[in-house]
Amino acid sequence: MSQKTNSLKQLALQKFKKNFWGVLSFYFIALVGLISIFAYVFAPDNSQYANQMHLAIHSKQPGFKVQMLTIPSKITMNQSLIDRVFFGRKNTNTEVPISEYTITEDELVYKEFASDGLQGAEKELKLNIFPNNSPKEYIEHKTFLFGTDKYGRDLLSRVLVGARISFFIGFVAVLISLIIGVTLGSIAGYFGGKIDALIMWIINVTWSIPTLLLVIAITLALGKGFWQVFIAVGLTMWVEVARVVRGQIISTKEMQYVTAARALGYNDFRIITKHILPNIMAPVIVISAANFAAAILIESGLSFLGIGAQPPMASWGAMIKDHYNYIILGKPYLAVIPGLCIMSLVMAFMLIGNALRDAFDVKS
């Protein structure tokens, strides 16, 4: 009778599957990742950056409904399906919220929507600007599930599109931190001596600078923008990874399997990458999960300060910045909704980090 043996990876995976909050967090993060990639497919407003403004219906409550008239443009935009799916639709049409309309023989007469009991302006349009002289196809009842922001944009669409920045900044920042941190930590821990002293001096100097201040300095040096923020956050998160990798390699490089690899004549690069790093990646994975959460919070803080993702790009931090004063004006949901999104995503990464820590713990 054969006996089934499990590797350490399989045992860790089995332990992780038993952690309810870890598994739930994993599926939540996967869902947010799917929404981030296909945000424009799910968003009601699939224009670029979900930036379709309707000032007449600004700051409306969740569930607000209105009739929307779309006035077709003579300008045609040639845009591929892939471009529309991943970067939004280049919209040249004009959308006008209306309260009522009538159709005559050759004109569409409509009254613009107005809030607070005011009467909107009455305007006319020739029917020939609509294909087949049929304006009814261009009038629809629109529901804003999360309401509208102070510019009259669909808040739900902005939240969905804004998830892309908060989610992908975690991946890019952690990738940059892993490349720099694992490389420098491995060199310092394996070779020691003056190389270790020099790298530790760089680590300590970088560690002594407040993270947010360092990110702001790098962002100002690289310029304001989408990728600049990603790089700036990543360049400030490698220090902790480097310290952990260095410590792990110092305690591992004298193990018997490393001595055996040296005796077989393997070069230092192969020993580090093929023998040492695969055996010390458990704590690095846990730190990476925590760094995901930290990167999201740092980007939100930068966007709140106005040096993160720039308008009209949607960002959860920028949405809070635009609407935090509405908390005392009776419309707190404009800032609370993106705040809850940040909190839930950060919490998911922290929970999955705790679950990974427990799964890789050999003592439990």
From TrEMBL:
Subcellular location per the Swiss-Prot or TrEMBL entry: Cell membrane
InterPro entries from the UniProt entry: BP-dependent_transpt_permease (IPR050366), MetI-like (IPR000515), MetI-like_sf (IPR035906), OppC_N (IPR025966)
Entry superkingdom: Bacteria
Pfam families, A to Z: BPD_transp_1, OppC_N
Keyword match ATP-binding: no
Signal peptide (from-to): none
Membrane-crossing residue ranges in chain numbering: 20-43, 165-191, 198-220, 226-245, 276-298, 333-356
GO biological process: transmembrane transport
UniProt domain ABC transmembrane type-1: residue ranges: 163-353
Membrane topology, record value: Multi-pass membrane protein
Main location group: membrane
Cellular component aspect of the GO annotation: plasma membrane
Keywords from the UniProt entry: Cell membrane, Membrane, Transmembrane, Transmembrane helix, Transport
Family from the record: Belongs to the binding-protein-dependent transport system permease family.
Protein name: Peptide/nickel transport system permease protein
Taxonomic source organism: Algibacter luteus
